């Protein structure tokens, strides 16, 4: 089994504390509210959101996937950092065993930079190509921008 790492970076005019709260700490409340057609609900099936908690995301009817489960591996609220692992999904992955994500928000030019890395643990004998994960990267960027617009429209959210 090999590991293939992909990284991406987003910039925002929103403060890192607000983006972190919206996308990590309070995502179970905010995300279903602002993308109800794509994400039906997000709920903790174990824990309260801290390290070791398991969060299940239930997708809308139009999605090709019904649910995912992520385990929170590390959480540093003061430094706007989170590490979590995709541990289960209704879709069987033919090339990967699991994915470990790391997200870090830092201050920059009155807003923030979000650095995200994804470690794809590839199954023995499988080869993962850029096209295999492009859709996931595009969705992450889309969600980031939707949350940013939501926070800009209402400065009291996650303040």
TrEMBL record:
<feature type="domain" description="Bet v I/Major latex protein">
    <location>
        <begin position="1"/>
        <end position="154"/>
    </location>
</feature>
<dbReference type="GO" id="GO:0005737">
    <property type="term" value="C:cytoplasm"/>
</dbReference>
<keyword id="KW-0568">Pathogenesis-related protein</keyword>
<dbReference type="InterPro" id="IPR050279">
    <property type="entry name" value="Plant_def-hormone_signal"/>
</dbReference>
<dbReference type="GO" id="GO:0006952">
    <property type="term" value="P:defense response"/>
</dbReference>
<keyword id="KW-0611">Plant defense</keyword>
<dbReference type="GO" id="GO:0005634">
    <property type="term" value="C:nucleus"/>
</dbReference>
<dbReference type="InterPro" id="IPR023393">
    <property type="entry name" value="START-like_dom_sf"/>
</dbReference>
<dbReference type="InterPro" id="IPR000916">
    <property type="entry name" value="Bet_v_I/MLP"/>
</dbReference>
<protein>
    <submittedName>
        <fullName>Major strawberry allergen Fra a 1-3-like</fullName>
    </submittedName>
</protein>
<dbReference type="GO" id="GO:0038023">
    <property type="term" value="F:signaling receptor activity"/>
</dbReference>
<dbReference type="GO" id="GO:0004864">
    <property type="term" value="F:protein phosphatase inhibitor activity"/>
</dbReference>
<comment type="similarity">
    <text>Belongs to the BetVI family.</text>
</comment>
<dbReference type="InterPro" id="IPR024949">
    <property type="entry name" value="Bet_v_I_allergen"/>
</dbReference>
<dbReference type="Pfam" id="PF00407">
    <property type="entry name" value="Bet_v_1"/>
</dbReference>
<dbReference type="GO" id="GO:0010427">
    <property type="term" value="F:abscisic acid binding"/>
</dbReference>
<dbReference type="GO" id="GO:0009738">
    <property type="term" value="P:abscisic acid-activated signaling pathway"/>
</dbReference>
């Amino acid at each position: 089994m090999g590991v293939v790492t992909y990284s991406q970076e987003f910039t925002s005019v929103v403060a890192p504390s607000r983006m972190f709260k919206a996308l990590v700490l309070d995502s179970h409340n905010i995300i279903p509210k602002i993308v109800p057609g794509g994400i039906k609900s997000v709920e903790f099936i174990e824990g309260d959101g801290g390290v070791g908690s398991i969060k299940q995301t239930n997708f809308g009817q139009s999605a090709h996937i019904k649910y995912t489960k992520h385990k929170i591996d590390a959480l540093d609220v003061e430094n706007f950092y989170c590490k979590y692992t995709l541990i289960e999904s209704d879709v069987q992955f033919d090339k990967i065993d699991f994915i470990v994500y790391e997200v870090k928000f830092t201050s920059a030019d009155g807003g923030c930079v979000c650095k995200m890395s994804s470690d794809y643990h590839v199954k023995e004998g499988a080869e993962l190509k850029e096209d295999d994960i492009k859709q996931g990267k595009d969705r992450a960027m889309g969600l980031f921008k939707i949350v940013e617009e939501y926070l800009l429209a209402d400065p009291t959210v996650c303040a």
